Amino acid sequence: MSAFLAAFDALILVVRQAVFVIAVVAFVVFAIDWLVRTRRINPFNPVARFYRRAVHPLTLPVERRIVRAGGLPTSAPWWTLVGVVVGGILLIVLLGFVRSTVYSAAIAATAGSAGLYYLLISWTFGILQAAVLVRVISSWLRLPEWKWWLRWSVVLSEPILRPLRRIIPPFGMMDVTPIVAWFGLQIIEGLLLR
Predict the structure, then answer these.
(1) How many CB atoms lie within 10 A of CB 148?
(2) Residues 54-90: pLDDT tens digits?
(3) N or C: fewer beta carbons within 10 Å in the chain?
(4) Residues 33-51: pLDDT tens digits?
């Protein structure tokens, strides 16, 4: 098991370095793309023609979303860079989560039934808290809840949030039930693991 964890740690280190390199290259590429879009580089320059032909199609979906939201198309390279960086960070966090999950499963397997109980409770409440967090972030980004990759969070969190919405009124435009649900799940998990 220690050899697997060492190999996984090496993989995480390589992914971190790769994400950093990709972010630096993306910064340079999207900075030049921004210079082309804002006409700080002559639009008839060979560099500008290359960027319009090669890089612009990559940022076109982001540009469409920005324009639909009322933004400027010239900001598409920067938002694409934000997407690349956030995606890289999420990949690193996901790999760290997988590593800690494998490690905790190995420790729980050696601890017998008490370890498996602890693992089952912590994983269950971790998934429920992740569902609440995904619901909150998707509501900030105004993503539709019926998308296939968000539906799981609605199915898991709605039975928790619906009763809380009946009890707790919204404060202005802010719904505080996800915060209450998050802390409530932590308290219940703590009581069950005691």
Answers:
(1) 6
(2) 888 888 888 898 898 888 888 889 998 999 999 999 9
(3) C
(4) 889 888 888 888 898 888 8
Residues 6+ away with beta carbon under 8 Å from 48: 36, 41, 42
In degrees rounded to 5, what are phi and psi of residue 174? -100, 130
Q: What is the mean pLDDT of residues 3-30?
A: 92
CA 172 to chain centre: 27
Under 8 Å CB-to-CB from 15, ≥6 apart: which residues? 91, 92, 95
Rounded CA-CA distance 177/48 in Å is 50
- CA dist 178 and 181 (Å) reads 5
Domain extents in the chain:
1-110, 112-194
Amino acid (one-letter) located at 188: I
What are the CA-CA distances from residue 23 to residues 68, 133, 173 (Å)? 26, 26, 36
Q: What is the pTM of this model?
A: 0.71
CB 15 within 8 A of CB 92: yes
Residue among 148, 104, 149 nearest 126 (CA): 104
